[in-house]
Amino acid sequence: METNTTPETSVYTGARIQQRLMMCLAMIAGYCDSYGLLHFKTYVSFMSGNSTQTGFALGHQNYATALIAFTAILFFCLAVLAATLLSTHSWYRGNWMTFCFVACLMVICESLVAYVHLNKYIGVAILSFAVGYLNNALTHVGGQSVNPDFVTGNLNNMMKHYASAIKRKELTDAKGDWDTHLYRASMLLTVWLCFVSGAMVCSGLAGWLGNWTLIPVVFILLLCPFYIKNRTIQMG
């Protein structure tokens, strides 16, 4: 039986798969941010908020608060650096190593929280490193640059696309007839909604799961490689 698959159709299918994965990653980022606020009183994904908190706390000579926020920023940045450097090696398989590594980090963090009530600086360091490392798992959906936890940038790009759609401007780097300003704006909106939904779900589950609130995220991360395995998707 012949199929009518064309290069444009293939690109569209790949973009849809990437969008679903990005939505999942955004939900995980929002979920972890909410977890960080609940357990450590700081963000582990939202580095803009941590930067503001660091400066605000230093201005009030609240060095403990500044240090915990700066710890999150430092380990998030170190994770992005490590993930970027490792991705250049031929033996590295980002399609599954990234998710398995981050899942292990979250299990370690969760276990330390549950059993030894770890120092919050250690918890923030581990979880921020995990989220930062995961941040490099997927950086584009089709031709659109997007990060699961870069809320400000995603909203900024979304509104620019909406403005261009209102003015009926053509998309210069469109991947096909389906790839329009309105399509990209809607995609970025779904990523934002997933981030907010993840934060909301974590807040709701925290009272039920207690110290094991990260367990659902661990299971999702371990399922991601199986989702990617049977699909053609460009990571990074």
Structural class: mainly alpha
Would you tell me the overall average pLDDT? 88
Q: Which outline best applies?
A: globular
Q: Helical segment tally?
A: 8
Sequence of strands across the biggest β-sheet: 1-2
Number of domains: 1
Element-level helix/strand string: HHHHHEEHHH
Give the fraction of residues assigned to helices.
55-70%
Distance between the termini: 34 Å
- Largest sheet descriptor: 2 strands, antiparallel
| Residue share in β-strands | under 5%
Report the strand count. 2
Q: Give the uncertain stretches in residue-range form.
A: none
Based on CA atoms alone, the radius of gyration comes out at: 19 Å
List the helices and strands and how they pair.
Layout (H helix, E strand, L loop, with lengths): L6 H34 L6 H13 L3 H24 L10 H19 L4 H15 L5 E2 L2 E2 L5 H16 L14 H29 L5 H15 L7
Antiparallel strand pairs: 1-2
Helix pairs in contact: 1-5, 1-7, 2-3, 3-5, 4-5, 4-8, 6-7
Describe the structure.
The protein has helices at residues 7-40, 47-59, 63-86, 97-115, 120-134, 151-166, 181-209, 215-229; strands at 140-141, 144-145. The chain has 236 residues and is mostly helical. The chain has one domain (16-222). The protein has a two-stranded antiparallel sheet with strand order 1-2. Strand 1 and strand 2 (144-145) form a beta hairpin. Helix 2 packs antiparallel against helix 3 (63-86), helix 3 (63-86) packs parallel to helix 5 (120-134) and helix 4 (97-115) runs antiparallel to helix 5. It is globular. The chain starts with 6 loop residues before the first helix and ends in a 7-residue tail after the last helix. The mean pLDDT is 88.
